[in-house]
């Protein structure tokens, strides 16, 4: 078995376990870049260097390749609380719950973006919110020791639109699912931050249902290029409008302007104003670069398109 992870810094980590199976579930040895590891964990910095992680598997248990252990004194630490409400984007209202695994500790929170303290509101039951809000929370133990700050952002959708995606996004880069394309949450230069949807070896095609005839003035989309990590801008982006979801008319064809050889991460919103026209459906088709160019280390493999938002005004 072999798995490759394309890291955000442009390096690649390859994990090999050639003989792993139901009959060989036991680890006999681990090597990172050819060096035997006797610790059960790796520092994040080691992973970011990329390279090859080799697992030798066996059908025999009883051996312990990890005889050195890194540890921390947990007695003087309080676990960060968990803030959970399910989806981060909601239509009407949502109940936000909080929890901590540290025994006998209490949770204190704020809902105005300020830093929480032991003097902030104490969490006792799920908090009902009906507008866009940032919640921050800490857990405080009886001795006064408190955790690091947990933070969660919840966004109330500005519309009731839905979206149907005809392409298939990569399961590692879901961007919050289908509705993530019209939720107003934008990505940053870190392609793995969770806001981006990634499509490899295919065009990106999706249709937004505005739920009723609406005057459309601007169409567009937000895209990322990070060529080191196999992500390129689409070559061009077409938009079509329809009143019935069957007959579509092309109204825009936007050419992108970032060179394929540009290796610096870049975010672009490509938009185009239209002559006012009523429509219920807006279809976007972003064309994939295709095969990675010969000059690139990933030459011959399939390029990605990364999109975070369909823009309609």
List keywords for this structure.
313 residues, mainly beta, 5-stranded mixed beta sheet, 1 helix, 20 strands, 2% helix, 44% strand, flat
What is the structure about, briefly put?
The longest helix is centred in the first third of the chain and has 5 residues, at 44-48. The chain has 1 helix and 20 strands.
Q: Please provide the ordered H/E string of secondary-structure elements.
A: EEEEHEEEEEEEEEEEEEEEE
Main sheet record: 7 strands, antiparallel
Q: Report mean pLDDT, rounded to a whole number.
A: 90
Terminal CA distance: 48 Å
Helix content range: under 10%
User: Overall 3D geometry?
Assistant: flat
Instruction: Using the CA coordinates, give the radius of gyration.
Output: 24 Å
Helix/strand-derived class? mainly beta
Uncertain residue segments: none
Q: Helix segment count?
A: 1
Count of extended strands: 20
Instruction: Note the beta-strand portion.
Output: 35-45%
Question: Layout of helices and strands, plus pairs?
Answer:
Blueprint: E1 2-6, E2 12-16, E3 26-32, E4 35-36, H1 44-48, E5 51-58, E6 82-84, E7 89-90, E8 94-99, E9 106-110, E10 121-122, E11 127-129, E12 133-140, E13 150-156, E14 162-165, E15 197-200, E16 204-225, E17 236-242, E18 249-255, E19 266-286, E20 304-312
Parallel strand pairs: 2-5, 7-13
Antiparallel strand pairs: 1-2, 3-4, 3-5, 6-8, 8-11, 9-10, 9-12, 12-13, 14-16, 15-20, 16-19, 16-20, 17-18, 17-19
